[in-house]
Structure formats: structure tokens, C-alpha cells
Amino acid sequence: MNIRFFIIVPVYNVEKYLQECIDSVLGQTYRDFRLILVDDGSTDSSREICEYYSQQDDRVCFKTQDNLGAHAARCSGVKEVTISKDNYVIFIDADDYCGSDMLESLRRIIGGRAYDMILFNHRLVSGSPSVPLYNSDREFDEESKRELFRFIIGGNRLNNLWNKSFNSTLFSDTDLRENEIILKANDLFLLLPLFVKSNSFYYLNKGLYFYRVRENSITAKYAPDHIDSLFAVKKSTLGCMKEMGYDSDEDLALFYKYFIIMLMNYVVKSMRSKNSFSLKVDICERIKENDFYVELVKNLGTVKLSIPYRVLVFLFRKNYYRSILWLSSLFGGIF
């Protein structure tokens, strides 16, 4: 089996980290890959950095687009992928980097069986290891994929794209909804249709990816516009659950539980942000105006929340926004 990897990197104003990311890919011990850099309208020197590498190494493909977001950039990169059961797609964030043996480690797994999706561990750039889902490698099939899906909707790092390798055939005849503008949770938005099509999985208990926590990244910003994206992704999640038959009362209760926790965490982080208080209130009101939030409130009776989250939901529904800030400081790292 001649395995080839297509590594897609959406790029936007990451000049400080971009070279480290690209060098980590070009320095792989396994050499059969194509690196696809998609600049999303950067205003710093990121575009020039991409251009330089594309001129130095013929394995590097460079594309540009207007500032349409990471989801559109990834979809643009997918168009450069050659669809074959022997080809695999990996998504890397431009401010992160990968270990030099990432591709070789994945090749060894794929050489035994052409899994639809391979999941692997990560480490923080700060040096801290991630908490593994399992203490050893493990296979999943169509019958046991529900267990993985519960981890995905649970909001942990498994709902990201960057800790996975996808068989390229998953992208054939799959609606990636590339024209949708998704400002928040865009990883999950692309992951969902690929997960639905996947029937074989392998979990590799090895940290192959280095994730960087940045306070000024898109995931650390809070704005009313993000709310629409969050609800769009959650609606998509619910649709996928129904498509796979994961819509039992137990499944739905779990979904609503993690959804309300995600919303409340977003509210708390927004309250802690440098936004003006009026903008923080706008974000809260934007949440309450969404029809899906109304449905969520109706299903709160099926959800078992810890005491801090129950208090938080009460304060939120009563518009006690300043009290939310007080509560979050009282309970510290819980939220």
C-alpha cells in the first residue's frame, strides 16, 4: 500500500508561529505527503511566508482566498486532495505543530488496515501531556462508534480536526457546506459529516500533535456573531445524531447537557473578557433570542447538572449577569 498524506493548513495572521508549523511538516521522517497552505486573507507576513515555502519545496501547495474563515479555507484545501483509499487527509492549525514521527506513526497503523478515521493524542506546547481517552490503542467499528461520538459531543478535544487522520474517500460526494460562514466551533462543523460516513476507527494512544493555547486566537474571542455559529453547529450535531440513530432519550439528554454546559462556559468566558459590559449583555441576549435556545430550555428537566451549573443557568435566565461574573470567580476553574 502506497500511502500518501495531504496536510491542510488554514492560515490567518500567524506570522509568529507559521514557520515552526511548516518546518514540523517538512521535517517528517515519512516523506510522501503534500502540504496545502490556504491563506485566508492575512494582513501580516503570513502570505509571504507561505509563498517562500511553496517556492522552496515542490510538495508545498499555496492557495489564497478572501477572509472567509477557517472552514472555507479547509474546504478550499480539500479540493487539492487526490481521492483514493490509500490517501489520507490531516488538518493542522497554523499556530500548532506536529511531532517529526507523526506521519510515520500513522502509516504503520494504516499499513495494517485502511481505517476511515484514526484518532491520536496531543500534547500542549507548554509541555503538559493531554489526558488520554484510553490507556492503550483501540479499534472501533460501526457498532461501537456511538462511544466515540459521545466523547465528541462532550466538548473535549476529540471534537477537533487536528487530532485525526481521515481516509480521503470520506470527502467524496460529501457536502462540506463550504459556503457556510462558521466563526465558532468550525472544526466540529466539518468533522460531523465525515464521522457519519466513517465505519472503522483506530485510537492511537500517542501524542503526535502539539497544541498551543493562545489568548488572542479566534477561539478566545467573544462576539455576538459567534452565537449564530454555535447554534448552527449544534443543530448540525443534532441532525447527525438522528441520521445515525443516536436519538434515544439517553442520547438526547447527554446532548442537551453538554450543550447547556458549553453555552454557560461561553457566557462565563465572555463575562471575563475585556469586552464592554454592554457587549457582554448583547451576547447573552443573542443566545436567548435563538429558537434553539428555547428548545434547550424546554429540555432542561432531562438534564442532570452540577450545583454550580444549575445556579449559573438560574442566574442567566433571570438576567443576573453581574452575578454570573461573581459566581465564576467564586468557583474558579470549574467553568
Question: What does this protein look like?
Answer:
This protein is of the alpha/beta class. It has two domains: 4-211, Spore Coat Polysaccharide Biosynthesis Protein SpsA, Chain A (Alpha-Beta Complex); 222-334, no CATH class. 44% of the residues lie in helices and 16% in strands. It has helices at 18-26, 46-56, 70-78, 102-112, 145-153, 186-197, 224-244, 249-272, 277-289, 291-298, 307-317, 321-331; strands spanning 4-11, 33-39, 60-64, 87-91, 97-98, 117-124, 138-140, 164-167, 201-211. Strands 1, 2, 3, 4, 5, 6, 7, 8 and 9 form a nine-stranded mixed β-sheet that branches. Helix 6 (186-197) runs parallel beside helix 7 and helix 7 runs parallel beside helix 9 (277-289). It starts with a strand and ends with a helix. The mean pLDDT is 90.
Quick overview of this protein structure:
By secondary structure, the chain is an alpha/beta fold. The protein has two domains: 4-211, Spore Coat Polysaccharide Biosynthesis Protein SpsA, Chain A; 222-334, no CATH class. The chain contains twelve helices and nine strands.
Query: SSE string, helix = H, strand = E?
Result: EHEHEHEEHEEHEHEHHHHHH
CATH topology of the largest domain: Spore Coat Polysaccharide Biosynthesis Protein SpsA, Chain A
CATH class of the largest domain: Alpha Beta
How would you characterize the largest beta sheet? 9 strands, mixed
The percent range for strand residues is 15-25%
N-to-C span = 46 Å
The CATH fourth-level homologous superfamily of the largest domain: Spore Coat Polysaccharide Biosynthesis Protein SpsA, Chain A
Give the helix level as a range of percent.
40-55%
**What sort of overall outline do the alpha carbons produce when their principal axes are compared?**
globular
Give the CATH architecture of the largest domain.
Alpha-Beta Complex
Oligomer: single chain
